[in-house]
Amino acid sequence: MRFARKHILSSSAVIALAAGISIGLESTAGAAALYAKTGTSVSHSYVFSNVDSGDMRCFGPELDITDAVVCYRYDRNATYVQSKKASGNFKLGQHAAGGNTWRCRNNYANSSGTGTWVECKWSTKPAAGACAVLRVGHGQSDWYVVSKGSFTMCF
């Protein structure tokens, strides 16, 4: 009898949690969002071409993640991720501002990917004057980690 009550209570909790998640996914426009993409290959010269120093910030490597670099260009509204070395892991770059997070993935994990850059262009971006934090990361299909945050950058 005791087992049955616990089972009923846990089922009710699961239903309540699912309802809460559904409501959270349909929340108003003011809620924070995660924007994630797999990047497309670009050259090093393209990443840095015609850049104004006020429009671009880069970050990496961190002590715990030494195989990736992330750059964000406000003028292009794009995130760039470089694979610094083959580690068997995809590389991540992200910037976060105003509660929103933009995450770009470089899938070149093997030795032919060393030094590669990818670009993720975004349709939304931090508001003018917003401050953002950059992070680098890496992972595989079932896990990933991101570094501690960078310096704060404001546009």
- CA radius of gyration is 19 Å
Percent range for helical residues?
10-25%
**Overall CATH class of the largest domain:** Mainly Beta
* Biggest sheet character: 6 strands, mixed
Please give the alpha-carbon distance between the first and last residues: 62 Å
Number of discrete domains: 2
Query: What is the residue-averaged pLDDT?
Result: 79
The count of β-strands is 11
The helix tally amounts to 2
Q: Note the beta-strand portion.
A: 35-45%
Kindly name the structural category.
alpha+beta
Task: Quote the CATH topology of the largest domain.
Answer: Immunoglobulin-like
Low-confidence sequence ranges: 1-29
- Overall spatial form: globular
Element-by-element helix/strand order = HEEHEEEEEEEEE
Which CATH architecture of the largest domain would you pick? Sandwich
